[in-house]
Amino acid sequence: MPGLRRMKIMIRDNTKEIRIGSRVIGGGNPIAVQSMTNTKTEDAEGTIRQILKLEDAGCDIIRCTVPTKEAAESIAKIKKAIHIPLVADVHFDYRLAIAAIENGADKIRINPGNIGGADRIREVVGAAKMRKVPIRVGVNSGSLEKEICEKYGGVTAEGLVESALDKVRMIEDFDYDNIVISIKSSDVMMCVRAHELIAKETRYPLHVGITEAGTVFSGAIKSSVGLGLILNQGIGDTIRVSLTGDPVEEVRAAKLILRSLGLRRGGVEVVSCPTCGRTEIDLIPLAKKVEEMVQDVPLDLKVAVMGCVVNGPGEARGADVGICGGKHEGLLIRHGEIVRRVPEDQLLEVLREELLSWGIES
Ligand code: SF4
Fold this sequence. Notes:
Bound molecules: iron/sulfur cluster
Mean pLDDT: 91
Order of helices and strands: EEEHEHEHEHEHHEHEHEHEHEHEEEH
Helix content: 40-55%
Radius of gyration: 23 Å
Shape: elongated
Largest sheet: 8 strands, parallel, barrel
Strand content: 15-25%
Number of strands: 15
Number of helices: 12
Low-confidence stretches: 1-9
Distance between the termini: 6 Å
C-alpha cells in the first residue's frame, strides 16, 4: 500500500488500563494527546468551538478548568457537542469536583492535598466510584509541600515522586484505584528523573508533560527534549505539550513528537532542506505552505521540499514524494525518481494533486 512505512514502535511499560470516556489509556494502548482549553468553561459555546478545532487537529482528550459552579454545569452542554473525553480540572473546592462528575466529566484532575481533608476526599472518591470516573492526581514543582521541600533540601525529583505517591494513597485509602498520575516540572531534567523514578514505583498510567514550557518555539523545544527522553524509555501513557499559545499548536507539537519517536503513525511528515547558496527558489515560504497544506492530510507519507536540482533529488530519495526548486521551475519527485518538470509557481498545486492521487490509490 503506498505511503505505509515500517516504523519501530517502542514497547512501553505495562501500566494499568484506565478508561476515560471512550478512550482507554495505559496497558500498551496508543499514547493519547491531550490539550487544555483556554476559553472560560462557563462559556459553553466558545469552549465547544475551541474543542472542535482541537479535535480536527488530532487532540484525543481535552481538559477544561472548572473554577465555578457555572463551569461545572457547562460541562453537560459541552459534552453533548464534542466527541472526545473531557477532563475537569478542579482546585480547592471538593463540591466542584463532585459537580463536574455529576455533569458528565470523563475524568477529574484534583490535588487531594488541597481539597480539605479526608471526609471531602471520601465524598469526591465516592462520586467518582459511582460513575467509574478516573481521578488524576498530580504534583507540580511549583506547589510542592513545604515539608517535602525541607526533607529533600528543595524541589527535587525524589520529593516530587514522594508527594505524588502520598496523594495516590489518599485516594487508595478509600478503596479506589481508578487513578492516573502526573508529575510536572518546568525543569526538564528534573522532570525526566522524576518519571524514571515513579515508573519503577507504580503501575498507574502517567500523564506526562513539561509544565510552563514557554512560548510556541521554546516550549516545543523543551517539551520535545523532555518528552523524548521520557517516552523513549517506554514511560508515559498520555502527553500534553504545554505552550503559551494556541492549544492547536500544542496538539500539533505533541503529534510530531510522537511521530518522531515512532510512537504514532499517520499524517504527513515534511522534510525540507535548510537552504544554502545553491537554493534557486523562494524555499522558506514554500516549505511553510506545504506544511500548512498537509497538516490535516491523513496519509502516512514523507514529503520532501528541496531547494535545488543538484542535491535535492538525491536528498529527497528517502521521501515518498518531493519537490525540488530549479531556475524558475522545479521538479516533482516520487521515491527519488524525477516525474516531471513544473513551473515554479505551480509547484504547490502539483504537489497537492500528487498527494490527492496517493490518497485515492491508498
Ligand atoms: Fe542547498 Fe540544494 Fe541541499 Fe537545499 S538541497 S541545502 S539548496 S544543496
